[in-house]
Design a protein that fits this description.
This protein is of the alpha/beta class. The protein is 23% helix and 35% strand. Helix 1 (49-64) runs parallel beside helix 2.
Length: 247
Amino acid sequence: MSLRIQELGWRATPMGEISLRRRWDPAARADVYEIKLDDEFLMSSLFVAAEVEVARIALAALRSAGPPPEGGFDVAVGGLGLGHTALTVLEDDAVRSLVVVEALQEVIDWHEEKLIPAGETLSADPRCHLSQGDFFARAADPAGGLEPGSPGARYHAVVVDIDHSPRHLLNPAHAPFYEAEGTRRLAEHLRPGGVFTLWSNDPPDEAYMDVLRGEFTGVRAEVVSFPNPYQDRPATNTVYVASKPRE
């Protein structure tokens, strides 16, 4: 058992004070890693089931459409967090490359400094590149690409876990991404037949699914259930899934 609460990192940023801490959680009987922005919890290692599923579902959808292409899948992830989504992508041997776009350089630094457990694996895997930047600004510019130095690059899957949901945003500037034009621009980052998945903390949103249907096929929402040691019932998140038409 570690110290009850141990601050591993802290920095002042233009967005506020960001901190990384590890605490012993008696209900879970485990060390829990958390990232806070001021007083708001951004990420916690206590509940990661849907962060894993948002990547697993994307790769499963690609495989269901046919064998991996020669060379493998190219995947982009929006939001690094505590690294669970990126780790799940890299567990698939068919993945050729992974770029993870993270707004906060501090979060990338903590992974590279191995302060976050996932950092050791992510830093050592040559397929993985952690890129500091605004995912939403890059997604709005298909010609510029999601990764600097790769203008116009197209991906087999784009996986996003940043905002709380399409309605509950960390920043109001993210709103256009969830609208029709933002969805059209997102689709341009995908190869034909490519898959988009999105994590949400809220129940399925039919209005947002209608927006996705304007550009994608096979749109659905999968509800992911997982145990919550603080409640007498399972908790749920949502994963939206959509495929770009092949033609």
